[in-house]
């Protein structure tokens, strides 16, 4: 069973990470550009990856927490001082990025659209 969490911005992300139970289910963070009025991200790669990841999650037969993190608008994200880029816990270079919390596993950019890589990331603990 997948539990979905929506996180908006760096401050909410930081607060959420402080509540993660190390004995609880694995937490995966999906970092994406903020949504435009039409419901799609300003980031074309995020628009491409999101339905693939959601379809994969709908088939997943394990307990995980999937946290969708809105990194902000294009201008904010492109700033080299953006905290999602500079924070040692995230160190994002591109979006979309999918990170398994407290692990080294991550998928970046077009890797997020590859089902076999998603499978490997989600089954790492088995």
TrEMBL record:
One of its GO terms (cellular component) is cytosol. It is found in: Cytoplasm. The keyword Disulfide bond applies. The keyword Disulfide bond applies. It comes from the Eukaryota. Residues 8-124 form the Thioredoxin domain. It holds the Pfam family TXD17-like_Trx. GO terms for molecular function: protein-disulfide reductase [NAD(P)H] activity. InterPro entries: Thioredoxin-like_sf, TXNDC17-like, TXNDC17_dom. Gene3D superfamilies: Glutaredoxin. Belongs to the thioredoxin family. This is Thioredoxin domain-containing protein 17. It comes from Parnassius mnemosyne (clouded apollo).
């Amino acid at each position: 069973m997948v539990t979905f969490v929506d996180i908006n911005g760096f401050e909410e992300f930081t607060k959420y990470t402080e509540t993660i139970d190390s004995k609880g289910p694995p937490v995966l963070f999906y970092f994406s550009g903020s949504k435009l009025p039409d419901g799609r991200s300003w980031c074309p790669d995020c628009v491409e990856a999101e339905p693939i990841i959601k379809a994969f999650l709908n088939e997943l037969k394990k307990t995980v927490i999937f946290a969708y993190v809105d990194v902000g608008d294009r201008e904010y994200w492109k700033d080299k001082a953006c905290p999602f880029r500079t924070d040692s816990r995230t160190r994002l270079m591109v979006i979309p990025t999918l990170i398994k919390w407290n692990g080294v596993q991550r998928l970046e950019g077009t890797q997020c659209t590859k089902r076999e890589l998603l499978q490997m990331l989600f089954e790492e603990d088995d």
